[in-house]
Amino acid sequence: MRQRARSPEDKERRAEDLLAAAEAVARDLGGIRHVTLLAVTERAGLHRTGVRRYYSSKEELLLELAERGWGQWRDKVAAEVGDRTGLDAPAIAAVLSGTLAALPVFCDLLTHVTLYLEGDVDIERARRYKTHAFAAHDAIAAVLVRAGLMGQEQVTSLLAAAVLLAAGLWQASHPTATLAALYEQEPRWYHDVRDFRPRLDALLAATAAGLAAPPR
């Protein structure tokens, strides 16, 4: 069992350990819905009451993980685009779908943030999440506008679609145990949403093409 963090550096490191543990639990157990503070603290090597020294609740911990996810997405988009220019709508859509698919826990969190996470923390914590999420969003948009042939309004609309599609498709393609059993009995109900990445690719490409098409 680890000792209590003494210095600010130790505390920051323990907080990061908890975030990494929460992400690992979500990956191993099949989603954010299965994350508990007990599982997180056990994975991080802390006593189950220790998390309260770093995060006031499970909701705050998960919101912090979502906030970090926005930064990771921003960085992946910037790395994927690099110095390229002249990206057309299909290429921009591919950048967004590929980078989102590389962050499955973030895609899962996008649903939970909207449903309850940002509403179940105090207003200052919600403000901090929104501030950092919108800053990452705007940075992603700036990279795509600079490198691509789509305008600011088109890119902003495509980003909104990407977030909504990633959140919804991730949930649909990772059903609960009850729904998984039901889909075994009725495979046709699962067929259209089973494959997350191909569906995200196709729907984002279609959305980007529609946004980039000249008005009639």
TrEMBL record:
Pfam families cross-referenced by the UniProt entry: TetR_C_34
Boundaries of every HTH tetR-type domain copy: 12-73
DNA-binding region residue numbers: 36-55
Entry keywords, A to Z: DNA-binding
Residue intervals passing through the bilayer: none
UniProt-listed InterPro entries: Homeodomain-like_sf, HTH_TetR, TetR_C_34
Record-linked SUPFAM superfamilies: Homeodomain-like
Protein name: TetR family transcriptional regulator
